[in-house]
Specification:
The protein is α/β, with parallel strands linked by helices and 340 residues long. The chain has eight helices and 14 strands. 31% of the residues lie in helices and 24% in strands. It has a six-stranded parallel sheet, with helices on both faces. The protein has a six-stranded mixed sheet with strand order 10-9-11-14-13-12. A two-stranded antiparallel ribbon has the order 3-4. Helix 2 links the parallel strand 6 and strand 7. The structure holds adenosine-2'-5'-diphosphate.
Length: 340
């Protein structure tokens, strides 16, 4: 017994990781369907040692599909996720389109698995923003012990978060700069090669970016609406792996040493924190891993109960495809019980 799964956006960065992760984790499938735009019809994508022929989303009927995993951008989700859901598929959506809908649960299985039960309201579950996913995995076990009051986070986000074409832009621009022939920015607002850009998603009326707003509201929805969070989100010239510098203020006393012990035991987390031996994780070292890596845990002496830490994870995995597959596993296990 197994599930019929459709991957929407199967030719994209996240869609390809979804196929890899479904296979790696031996998600019980009877059939996997790869969907993308009409442009990609006939292209092949790998699923384990098989190749799947890509079909057009717009011609596809989801009847008989158990899970539809969407990662093709907000406008595609807005149009097609409700169609897939009405045809009976449980949609797990990577875009930001449904995340703040009160009838759509926003789920990180290590943090708020119980929220997944709400999928029945619209047959849709949302996956958080990549930077939020790794952050809340780190915050939740600390919040349970010492109650978080406020978080100040700065992100160092890789270009893969902006899609395939954005990674290509970093590559060609970097090469071009060496020969004085760099193409002008297209996917990014400014030069990304040898630079950093404090602008991800659009600017909002309060002068924050939408990416920064998402981290704030999504953390509240997933962990606790009482947590105050302020963010600065920055695109950096890396290909895969998002890093975050996180300052956390607690209601109750919590030392860095105790936080390290708690995080060592927490699900989804790997603590690597041994500065004497360069024991900290950088984005290139997290690529292909499932874990959220926590390093450089230290007391913040400027506030009564506070710590700083460094948090790194593969944005295409925990930040997107892995979390999506984990949600499907959770729903399958707890609610559908189809797989033996
Ligand atoms: P396609 O390759 O056919 O354009 P990324 O974010 O890595 O660039 O990937 C985006 C994914 O979303 C791709 O798989 C892309 O397919 C898919 N996509 C984009 N627009 C549509 C659409 N209108 N219908 C279906 N899939 C789409």
């Amino acid at each position: 017994m197994g599930y019929r799964v459709a991957v929407v956006g199967a030719t994209g960065n996240v869609g390809r990781e979804m196929l890899n992760i479904l296979h790696e984790r031996q998600f019980p499938v009877t059939e996997v369907v790869a969907l993308a735009s009409k442009r990609s019809v006939g292209r092949e994508v790998s699923f384990g040692d098989k190749n799947l022929k890509v079909k057009a989303l717009e011609d596809f009927n989801f009847t008989g599909t158990d899970f539809a995993l969407f990662s093709a951008g907000g406008s595609v989700s807005a149009k097609y996720a409700p169609i897939a859901a009405s045809q009976g598929a449980i949609v797990i959506d990577n875009s930001s389109h449904f995340r703040m809908d009160p009838d759509v649960p926003l789920v990180v299985p290590e943090v708020n698995p119980e929220a997944a039960a709400g999928y029945t309201r619209k047959n849709i579950i949302a996956n958080p923003n990549c930077s939020t996913a790794q952050l809340v995995v780190a915050l939740k076990p600390l919040h349970d012990v010492a109650t978080i009051k406020r978080v100040v986070v700065s992100t160092y986000q890789s270009t893969s978060g902006a899609g395939n074409a954005a990674m290509d832009e970093l590559f060609t621009q970097t090469k071009g700069i060496y020969v004085n022939d760099a193409p002008t920015p297209d996917k990014f607002t400014k030069q990304i090669a040898f630079n950093v850009i404090p602008h991800i998603d659009v600017f909002m009326d309060d002068r924050y970016t939408k990416e920064e707003w998402k981290m704030m509201v999504e953390t509240k929805k997933i962990v606790d609406s009482a947590i105050k969070l302020t963010a600065t989100c920055v695109r950096v010239p890396t290909f895969v792996g998002h890093a975050e510098s996180v300052n956390i203020e607690f209601e109750n006393e919590l030392s860095a040493d105790r936080a390290r012990e708690i995080l060592r035991e927490a699900p989804g987390i790997m603590v690597v924190d041994n500065p004497e031996e360069n024991g900290y994780i950088t984005p290139v070292e997290c690529v292909g891993d499932y874990a959220t890596f926590i390093s450089r845990i230290r007391d913040d002496a400027t506030i009564e109960n506070g710590i700083n830490l460094w948090c790194v994870s593969d944005n295409l995995r925990k930040g997107a495809a892995l979390n999506t597959v984990q949600i499907a596993e959770l729903v399958g296990r707890e609610y559908l019980k189809k797989a033996a």
